[in-house]
Design the sequence.
């Protein structure tokens, strides 16, 4: 059953929550809430499908946000390492720094590809379940690896609250964990593939 509940409904409680990225969130308390008939949006399979559609689009939106965040962290890192000098030269010229930054760049471009695939399929009304799942898997992995690389290459200043990088890292962490971690989504993808393979096998032997 899917309900659309008015924010000022009688018996509806809201408890403020503290999120990783400091985004305002609340926990709804419906123990004393009585829903009117006009609050009903759908029930049964129709309700499940509506919720599924919303979750898929929010996951795709999170992946898109993650792409922008990771791009910005990578750009900040490139600017910082180009200006920061050690032994009289910019640290960006060090091979180890270049390799770490290059890995992060490859991660961002891979995330861009799977995000574009997921969003394009959703916008065209095509089956996007697999594409969205893959985009969410890459979101978690890339957010983790790029924020770690950015912090590593910034050194101590990366965790200084007077420097903006920590805010991007907090957002990246929240997007990584929201609506399914990479591990959970990989397990879901594996189950979907196994289910599809089983169905194909049964059809082939029928």
Sequence:
């Amino acid at each position: 059953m899917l309900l659309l509940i008015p924010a000022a409904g009688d018996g509806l409680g809201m408890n403020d929550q503290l999120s990783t990225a400091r985004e305002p969130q609340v926990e709804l308390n419906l123990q004393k809430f009585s829903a009117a008939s006009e609050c009903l949006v759908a029930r049964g399979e129709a309700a499940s499908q509506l919720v599924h559609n919303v979750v898929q689009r929010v996951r795709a939106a999170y992946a898109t946000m993650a792409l922008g965040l990771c791009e910005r962290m990578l750009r900040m890192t490139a600017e910082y390492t180009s200006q920061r000098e050690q032994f009289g030269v910019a640290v960006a010229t060090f091979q180890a720094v270049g390799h770490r930054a290059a890995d992060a760049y490859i991660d961002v471009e891979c995330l861009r590809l799977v995000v574009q695939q997921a969003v394009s399929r959703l916008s065209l009304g095509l089956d996007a379940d697999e594409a969205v799942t893959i985009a969410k898997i890459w979101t978690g992995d890339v957010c983790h690896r790029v924020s770690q690389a950015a912090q590593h290459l910034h050194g101590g200043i990366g965790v200084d609250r007077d420097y903006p990088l920590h805010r991007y890292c907090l957002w990246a962490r929240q997007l990584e964990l929201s609506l399914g971690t990479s591990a959970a989504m990989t397990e879901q993808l594996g189950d979907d593939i196994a289910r599809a393979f089983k169905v194909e096998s049964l059809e082939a032997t029928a």
About this structure: Helices lie at 44-83, 95-123, 129-154, 165-177, 182-205.
